[in-house]
Amino acid sequence: MPDFSLPTVLITGATSGFGLATARKFADNGYPLILTGRRVERLTALADELAQLTPVFTYQLDVRDAEQLLRFMDAIPDEFKRIEVLVNNAGLALGASPADEADLNDWHTMIDTNVTGLVNVTHTLLPVLKAQPKASIINLASIASNWSYPGAHVYGASKAFVQQFSRNLRSDFAGTGVRVTSLEPGLSESEFSLVRFNGDQDKYNAIYEDSNPLQPEDIADIIFWIAEQPSHININSLEVMPTSQAWDNFKVVKG
Ligand code: NDP
Ligand code: 8X3
């Protein structure tokens, strides 16, 4: 008998990295899950894996596509509609070369995904979240929201948007049941860097070599902790790095 005694958690980008680990974390704790992403075969495999732990509804969703999002909302089975936690996780970086060498299409893809996609999902889910006695929106921003570094140009700017959007949502919903968090991780090992470097395994290895980076399970634990806070507590923002990382590697240009 499926157990819907706990509210539903909706995770975008559940097919790898943080989203996948977060799905496993909430499933381990019995939360019904709505899991989305573009790679449907991964969603199917994940649903099979988690089905013994909790009810799971998966849907192939590209967050950039507002019309697909509406079809998704219509497709959610009634028993999953008590959505109290939205993890706005889907996102990506493309490239790390200087701005003048960057591909404009990559810039548009990052803005479309990290900004427009996150806005699409949030706007669509807000009426559902507001209708619950308590709800949490946990947005994946980044240390790149707070700090500049070479090659971060549009990625960092898109994550600064996520951070400020989160703060402004907080202002709108202060005193209501809707909580909002900007979660700002640093160096974390996931497919993120394969995507960023277009599948280049050597660049991926170089990024993480000897750095003991954060793991997706670390971020999943933090997301779970944020969502589980008593309802009078709002974690506004949380920047987290591996201990091997700090703010002291900013580029010095002499000339
Ligand atoms: P991964 O590449 O492992 O996962 C990214 C997820 O986003 C995938 O599930 C992917 O699914 C999904 N995704 C990408 N584009 C879209 C889209 N258009 N529509 C729907 N889903 C999409 O990266 P991480 O888990 O590391 O990153 C997750 C989030 O955390 C991102 O927002 C990232 O910017 C942020 N972040 C990552 C850090 C890191 O160092 N790894 C540090 C700080 C923040 P699919 O391809 O199947 O659609
Ligand atoms: C990803 C972390 O340091 O590559 O958001 O910008 S970083």
From TrEMBL:
The record's section on Pfam families has:
adh_short
Question: One GO MF term, please?
Answer: oxidoreductase activity, acting on the CH-OH group of donors, NAD or NADP as acceptor
Cite the Ketoreductase domain residue spans from the record. Answer: 7-190
List the InterPro entries hit by this protein, alphabetically.
KR_dom (IPR057326), NAD(P)-bd_dom_sf (IPR036291), Sc_DH/Rdtase_CS (IPR020904), SDR_fam (IPR002347)
Would the keyword Oxidoreductase be found if you checked this record's keyword annotation?
Answer: yes
Name the keywords, alphabetized. Oxidoreductase
The record ties this protein, via Gene3D superfamilies, to: NAD(P)-binding Rossmann-like Domain
Q: Which PANTHER family match?
A: ALCOHOL DEHYDROGENASE
Regarding protein family, the annotation reads: Belongs to the short-chain dehydrogenases/reductases (SDR) family.
Protein name per its UniProtKB record: Sulfoacetaldehyde reductase
